[in-house]
Structure formats: structure tokens, C-alpha cells
Automatic annotation (TrEMBL):
Domain of life: Eukaryota
Protein name (database record): Methyltransferase C9orf114 homolog
InterPro entries: Alpha/beta_knot_MTases, NA-bd_OB-fold, Put_MeTrfase-C9orf114-like, tRNA_m1G_MTases_N
Organismal lineage: Eukaryota, Metazoa, Spiralia, Lophotrochozoa, Mollusca
Organism in which the protein naturally occurs: Octopus sinensis (East Asian common octopus)
Disordered as annotated region, ranges: 52-135
Alphabetized GO MF terms: methyltransferase activity
Length: 433
């Protein structure tokens, strides 16, 4: 049976509903109707009182927060932004003169340092120029060796590489002339064929190819079987092997053609962007050494003068590569000397010679250092019909053992060149002082 409620009971139910309000939760608890007597009426005052107490608590908490904020604001110092900006501006104005003065000092110091550096570089360049211009090298150094040393190589590519080793050793020690001589007997020379007959020519051709600057090789060396393995050759990197942008008053070149106007000279390709006009009339295709004019003409034409191959060495002290000479025998190496005075110092190398440590060289004009082949200088002496001496010691001013107490039973010729030139270098410098 469903109970019925009158208006008073309903009012009591509505009033008794207690509202509990917290900061984030609304909770409504309703008293069950079974516990309310029919016809009873509960007082309203307690509920209203509870509601008033909760609202007053909220007001009190808000008031406390507001007062705490006011206390914090009162405790903080008051900042005037306008005065702060004015103070910062005044400080900047005070520091500006100091900053300007410091910048001026730094600029002045930088200019002084730059001038000092430029002056030092100018003095260094002047000293180097005076050193090169005033102290050329008058003496020459020649090495001679038999072409038969290539017979010891097993393949054509190894023979080519062997020549490259000899060429680099010559350039490293400023050798001015390389002589390749034939140490075989005359009868063997006529009867032999194939590679052994052409070993001397192969040697000479590869030496010339390596000495030639790269930018004129194609014009001077056409395709040839001796050059088929030229790609394995290491560059000698001599001072006269220059790039396009490298500056020098001397350059190697090839005569390209005669000038467009008869009698005005020849045009020479020296590896620059423009050809050089020389005063002399020279046949086309010939290699020449050119000394460039330091003063450029108004027409912007490069001009120069054809000079001797030895001029860079004698005038400026610049090593300018080597020349290659072919000799029929050991005696021809000495008798066919290209210098009028001849070789005034001739050195032979052998393990039977005197120790190089005991050598005291005298000042010389043209020195010749001779190396033997696979069987030494004794075999070269025996193969030369023009020589009547039995001991090669009598052919030379000095007969030296440049590697005393050697550990290996044999020293290859390309190794002997490096060993000998290294041992002679300080003695040559001492003799030329």
C-alpha cells in the first residue's frame, strides 16, 4: 500500500533536505520518509542557521585572503619605471665615450699590426729576391749510369717505374745532367736484339719525358711504345714544372709560331693563358727557356727573352731540371763532356773503394759521379775497348765506397744513387763555401 502525504509532510521533506556545500562538492542527503511522522512539522530555523554559518565562513576566508594580499603589496617596494629608464639611459650615455675610445684604440692597434706585417713580408720578399738574384749556383753536378740496369727488371712496366726512381733521385739532389752509357761489348751490341738493344734509348726517352713540364709534353712527345706505361711514373715536381697561376720570371715553353709581323720575334707557349712574345726568331716546335719581362706593355702583351737553360741556375740559384746525354761507352762519358773546362772532379763508386767518410772534396766547377751496372764498374771498364787500364780506380779522382759495412751483399744502382748523393751532399756544400 502506497503511503499518502499531506502538504505539511511534503514541506517537511523539502526543508529537511540538507545541503552540504564544500569547495567542489554538492551533496544532498534526503531523510527517508519512513522516519517522518505523518502530520509533523519540523522547524526551519536550524537549516537556515546552518546556511548562514557557511556563507559567513566563506566571507571570512575571502576577507583574510584580501588582507593578506594587501599586506604583501604594502611590504613590496614601489618601483618607478620612468626613473629606472632615465637611470639606464644616463648610464649608457656615460659609457658611450669609453666604448668609442676603446674601439678607436683597437682600430689603431689593428692598423699598426697590419702595417708591421706588410713591412715584414716586404722585407722578407726583398731579402729572398736579393738572395736569389745575387747568389746563383755556378757549379754543376752530373751522374752517369749504364742503361743495362733495366735488364734486371722482369716486365716493361717495372722497367718504366725503375727509370722514374732514378729521375726522382736526380731531381731531389739537384743533378744537372744524367748520362746513360752503354756498357756492353761491341760484338754483343751488334748481335743482340729486342729489348736489350733498346734499353739505353728507353732509359733516355723516359728520363726526358719526366723532366719535361707537363703542359708542353704533348707537343714534344708523340705517341711511342716506350711511353705506354708512363702512367705509373711519379712526377718529379721540379721547380720548372709550374701551374697556370704560379708566378715566376722564368718559364719553359715551346715555340708556337712566328709573330704575325715579320721580324718581330716568335710566340711561345709557356703554360699561361696568353702566349709570350720573344724578340728572337726561333723555329716552331722548339723548346726554349723564357725570361719574362717584369714590366707589362701598354697593349697587355706578355713579352720575354729566350735565355739559356742554365740561366735560372746561374743567375737566380733556381734548380731547373736536368739534361740527358747518351754515351757509347764509359770513356765517352768523360771525353764527350758538354762543358769546355771538362769535369774537374770525377768520382767512381764501388764496394772496393775508399770509405766516403775519409773524403775531403776541394772546390770544383763540374763534378761527375759514375755508377756501375749489375756487375759493377769493372764490367764497364772491361767492355770499353778504348780503355787500356786494368783497374777502374785509375779513371777517377776519387774511388769511393759510399756505404761501408753494408748489410746486403748487393746494392742496386737506383739505391746506390740515393746513398751516394746523400753522403756527398754535405761534403759538396762544404767544398763550395
Amino acid at each position: 500500500m502506497i503511503p499518502s502525504y499531506d502538504d505539511c509532510t511534503l514541506l517537511n521533506l523539502f526543508i529537511i533536505s540538507s545541503v552540504c556545500i564544500s569547495d567542489a562538492v554538492l551533496k544532498i542527503n534526503i531523510i527517508k520518509p519512513e522516519f517522518i511522522l505523518k502530520g509533523s512539522c519540523l522547524p526551519v530555523a536550524p537549516v537556515a542557521a546552518s546556511m548562514n554559518s557557511s556563507s559567513s565562513a566563506k566571507i571570512n576566508s575571502k576577507t583574510k585572503r584580501k588582507r593578506s594580499r594587501e599586506n604583501i603589496k604594502q611590504s613590496e617596494p614601489y618601483i618607478n619605471m620612468r626613473k629606472l629608464q632615465e637611470a639606464m639611459k644616463q648610464k649608457r650615455e656615460e659609457n658611450e665615450p669609453k666604448e668609442k675610445e676603446l674601439l678607436e684604440k683597437m682600430k689603431t692597434q689593428e692598423k699598426t699590426t697590419k702595417k708591421a706585417t706588410e713591412s715584414e713580408e716586404l722585407n722578407t720578399n726583398t731579402k729572398n729576391k736579393e738572395k736569389n738574384d745575387g747568389k746563383g749556383r755556378s757549379y754543376t753536378l752530373t751522374i752517369a749510369l749504364p742503361g743495362s740496369i733495366l735488364d734486371n727488371a722482369q716486365a716493361a712496366v717495372l722497367r718504366t717505374y725503375l727509370v722514374g726512381q732514378v729521375a726522382r733521385a736526380a731531381v731531389i739532389f739537384n743533378v744537372d745532367e744524367i748520362v746513360v752509357f752503354d756498357e756492353r761489348k761491341h760484338s754483343d751490341r751488334n748481335a743482340s736484339g729486342g729489348f736489350k738493344a733498346d734499353s739505353n734509348h728507353l732509359f733516355g726517352r723516359l728520363l726526358q719525358y719526366l723532366e719535361c713540364p707537363q703542359y708542353i709534353r704533348k707537343q714534344l712527345f708523340p705517341r711511342h711504345s716506350d711511353l705506354q706505361y708512363a702512367g705509373v711514373l711519379n712526377p718529379v715536381a721540379s721547380p720548372h714544372h709550374m701551374s697556370v697561376g704560379e708566378e715566376s720570371i722564368y718559364r719553359e715553353g715551346v715555340v708556337h709560331s712566328e709573330s704575325s709581323e715579320p721580324g718581330r720575334g716568335s710566340l711561345v707557349d709557356v703554360g699561361l693563358k696568353k702566349k709570350v712574345l720573344v724578340d728572337q726568331t726561333i723555329p716552331s716546335g722548339q723548346r726554349v727557356t723564357v725570361k719574362l719581362n717584369t714590366v707589362r706593355s701598354k697593349t697587355n702583351i706578355l713579352k720575354g727573352t729566350a735565355v739559356s737553360f742554365s740561366t735560372p741556375r746561374t743567375e737566380a740559384g733556381i734548380y731547373w731540371g736536368y739534361t740527358v746525354r747518351m754515351a757509347d761507352s764509359l770513356s765517352s762519358v768523360i771525353t764527350e763532356c758538354p762543358y769546355e773546362e771538362g769535369y774537374d772532379t770525377i768520382i767512381g763508386t764501388s764496394d772496393k773503394g775508399t770509405s766516403v767518410d775519409e773524403l775531403k772534396l776541394e772546390k770544383f766547377r763540374h763534378a761527375l759521379v759514375v755508377f756501375g751496372g749489375l756487375q759493377g764498374l769493372e764490367a764497364s771498364l772491361e767492355a770499353d775497348a778504348k780503355l787500356t787500364v786494368d783497374n777502374p780506380r785509375y779513371l777517377f779522382h776519387y774511388y769511393l765506397n759510399t756505404c761501408p759495412n753494408q748489410g746486403s751483399r748487393t746494392i742496386r744502382t737506383e739505391e746506390a744513387i740515393l746513398i751516394t748523393m746523400s753522403a756527398l751532399r754535405p761534403k759538396i756544400d762544404l767544398a763550395q763555401r
